[in-house]
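Course assignment 3, question 2. Fill in each field.
Student: A.L.
Task: Predict the tertiary structure for the chain below.
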Amino acid sequence: MAQPVAHDKLPVPPGKSGCPINMTIELLGDRWSLIVLRDIMFSGNTHFRELLTASLEGIASNILAARLAKLVAAGLLTRDDDPSHRQKVEYHLTEAAIELVPVMAQLGAWGARWLDTAPELRVRAELLAAGGPPLWERFMAELRTIHLARAAIPTDGVLAELTAAYDEAAGTASFGATGSIRAAGAL
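Answer field:
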């Protein structure tokens, strides 16, 4: 269920200053928030257990639970009952989180340029950087379809292209028996 956002602003407490950079850092600047958003954005995983077990960085379950709750409260994720199982919930990106794609792309490009990163984890960042705003727009449109309209992950979309590039670099397969994308992780 979508979280209400008054006046098109996220429901977050006032920051130490009204500076947009400060407010963003206060919201997303902890170690795990962007990683959790990255994993939902680039893995296709929407359940707690999937996010926990697919975490390349080894997030602890209590930290994951706290970050998911924080991101839901901030209006970046929704928490919905899973229609296939009474005791499961799904986490979905909101429009505000989807609009972080260019930020994620830029962070990944900067990291790929300046830091010693693993080739299989760098390949998606390089593809996003090379594709630039047109690719980011296509990816955001795809994420809107997946997370806002609750459609299935397309097998021929941007996420599939990024995952195929990761798989080729890592020498793995991305689609399981259910057709969902298994490969999670870094840009």
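Instructor remarks: DSSP finds eight helices and two strands in the chain. Residues 1-6, 175-183 have pLDDT under 50 and may be disordered.
Grade: pending
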